[in-house]
């Protein structure tokens, strides 16, 4: 059983991240790279995975069956895997379900727990290593140092703003978009340097001691959205901003063609009564972001339309062309907060990381977490003393 305690010290507790969180992993290969690994069991026994070798873990009747190429090692409810030193890598490759999740490399310690219908895998990871992994997974390679600095601060702010999101499940955050995408170790030196150079820095609103909601998305299409229009929560730092930096980026434009009969049926389901002897005008222009699509005295929220048609964004216009309705859209994502492709372009143009942050988040400041009284949950597990 995991016991949750609250402590008010930063930097003393690892971040606990649930791995492959949306997958029901029932068997996994655990390999050692760049040094041997130590597998520790509740009874105090240990097993060594030599560099380049592996063990196999499978869920069987509520316990984890562990074996190597020579046969069974043991049957346990939980165990930990960690390197002899900080350079060793734990490589996880799920084998059931097959072809659903890729192999990934992790640093520090992995806790394996027999859970209902899956092996729960939790990475207990140093904060800066976690942030570097998130920045690489969310932003990718080949960008400027100032962009990576801005992204590191935003990801750290999001971390501390959501640190208790999964506390009842025995970890801080998951590794999916529900929290932040995390795919394990970052090997990008530029990202690692950017994370280290911004150590402890987060974003708060002016005269506030709590992290902001550090929302970000792929591309805003030239105008960010306010939080009030997306989440019905008016936050003074998440207001609409005209963004000239993202409009030539890959996700700035999109198009969707829908048969006119399908669109007419959709309109009817939403209350539009169409005279069979008349032609409905479905055209719609959105030079600036609006909340609703209005046609023939009915109004449909564009957020609802994005969900119903699985559109890339709510920022689109509509024309009727022959037997089709054509949606020409701008941007990708909810549009709130930092536009990632715009921020990348700002970095290319020489903007500093603080200028990038202050462009997308209004009335905020950068501050060290050491100056704030923020409590972070710490998990204590009875597996062994290595987990403390």
Describe the structure.
This protein has 388 residues and is α+β, with helices and mostly antiparallel strands. The longest helix is centred in the middle third of the chain and has 17 residues, at 145-161. Helix 1 (127-139) packs across helix 2, helix 2 (145-161) crosses helix 3 and helix 2 (145-161) crosses helix 8 (353-360). The chain has eight helices and 24 strands. The chain folds into three domains: 1-13 and 126-219 and 336-381, no CATH class; 25-116, no CATH class; 253-330, no CATH class. The two termini are 14 Å apart. It has helices spanning 127-139, 145-161, 189-197, 227-231, 260-269, 302-309, 340-348, 353-360, and strands spanning 3-7, 15-19, 27-33, 37-41, 46-49, 54-60, 63-68, 71-76, 78-83, 89-96, 104-106, 109-115, 118-125, 173-174, 201-205, 216-217, 253-259, 292-295, 298-301, 316-321, 324-330, 338-339, 364-368, 376-380.
Short description:
With 388 residues, the protein is an alpha+beta fold.
